[in-house]
Specification:
InterPro entries: Galactokinase (IPR000705), GHMP_kinase_C_dom (IPR013750), GHMP_kinase_C_sf (IPR036554), GHMP_kinase_N_dom (IPR006204), GHMP_knse_ATP-bd_CS (IPR006203), Mev_gal_kin (IPR006205), Mevalonate_kinase_arc (IPR022937), Ribosomal_Su5_D2-typ_SF (IPR020568). This is Mevalonate kinase. It holds the Pfam family GHMP_kinases_C. By secondary structure, the protein is of the alpha+beta class. It folds into two domains: about 160 residues, Ribosomal Protein S5, domain 2 (2-Layer Sandwich); about 130 residues, Alpha-Beta Plaits (2-Layer Sandwich), CATH 3.30.70. The chain is about 40% helix and about 25% strand. It has nine helices and twelve strands. The strands form two sheets. Strands 1, 2, 3, 4, 5, 6, 7 and 12 form an eight-stranded mixed β-sheet that branches. The chain has a four-stranded antiparallel β-sheet with strand order 9-10-8-11. Helix 1 packs parallel to helix 2, helix 2 packs across helix 4 and helix 8 runs antiparallel to helix 9. The chain is globular.
Length: about 300
């Protein structure tokens, strides 16, 4: 047995702007964050997947994404036995794209281990196909940002300059179904198209207005626009009291701006803050009942560890 061992990691992501509106073709801005999922791969006699959930073989109940990756990669190269060990810093089900990160890191590690020669574009594309297979529907954004890193406009995939400041994430610990929230927003849009359609266009406009501020490093303006975006997410009905408490406490502690990220209805909020303000912003979030994680944007997507 070749004693090969490969370890790859991929980052989680947040939406700085535009979620929900992106469903209707409007512009959004995604940002890779320095919270990573690492997947270590070793050759062995059978297929073993190990994570904090437990140790299984191919198991679509417990390890759906990695199981799908192993099956998909087996179509390219025969995989008889492999031990995949997952280690993640990204809280699951909190709107930080934990599924995209584990999928991309797994594809990356197997690609390297078995010399499949997949390009980053192909890895991102396969990751998206796997997310669709497991979830039924998925945006290509999560897997794209996880593969390539940095700050990216969606859908046109323009790379923006990565902010040189901190990001504080506040996790409400409340699980919310993105699928349900997206469906609720769709119903609202169908009931009041003359009101909700312009709101979507304005949210897309916020993303476009923010773009030049990334290039100039004007974080205070980015923060103000995040606050405006949050007001419109509230109007769409995806805000909650728990999220609001964390959002307002982070602003009170000196963040440039803050908003929910992803589906809303629970999950996480994100605050953009100067590096020297991150600790006090995190303390304010904890004081308001959230679990705070201090991180930062990252240029690096999929990488060999």
């Amino acid at each position: 047995m070749r004693n090969n061992m490969i370890s790859c990691s991929a980052p989680g992501k947040i939406y700085l702007f535009g979620e929900h509106a992106v469903v209707y073709g409007e512009t959004a801005i995604g940002c890779a964050i320095e919270l990573r999922t690492r997947v270590r791969v070793e050759l062995c006699d059978s297929i073993i997947i190990q994570s904090e959930i437990g140790r299984t073989g191919i198991d679509f109940e417990k390890h759906p994404y990695i199981s799908a990756v192993v099956e998909k990669m087996s179509e390219i190269v025969p995989i008889d036995g492999v031990h995949l060990k997952v280690n993640s810093e990204i809280p699951v089900g909190s709107g930080l794209s934990s599924s995209a990160a584990v999928t991309i890191a797994s594809i990356g590690a197997l690609n390297k281990m078995f010399g499949c020669g997949l390009s980053l574009e192909e890895i991102a594309k396969m990751g998206h196909e796997i997310e669709i297979q497991v979830q039924g529907a998925a945006s290509p954004t999560d897997t794209y940002v996880s593969t390539f890193g940095g700050v990216v406009t969606i859908p046109d995939r323009k790379k923006l300059k990565t902010p040189d400041c901190g990001i504080v994430i506040g996790d409400t610990g409340v699980f919310a179904s993105t699928k349900e929230l997206v469906a609720n927003v769709r119903k609202l849009r169908e009931s009041y198209p003359h009101l909700i359609e312009p709101l979507m266009i304005v949210i897309g406009g916020i993303s476009k207005t923010a773009e030049p501020f990334f290039q100039t490093g004007d974080y205070s303006s980015i923060g103000k626009l995040m606050n405006v975006n949050q007001g419109l997410l509230d109007a769409l009905g995806v805000n909650t009291l728990e999220l609001s408490k964390l959002i307002y406490s982070s602003r009170g502690a000196g963040a440039f701006g803050s908003k929910s990220t992803g589906g809303g209805g629970g999950g996480c909020m994100v605050a953009l803050a100067a590096s020297d303000k991150c600790t006090q912003v995190a303390e304010a979030i904890t004081g308001a009942g959230g679990k705070a994680i201090v991180t930062k944007p990252t240029e690096q997507g999929l990488r060999l560890e």
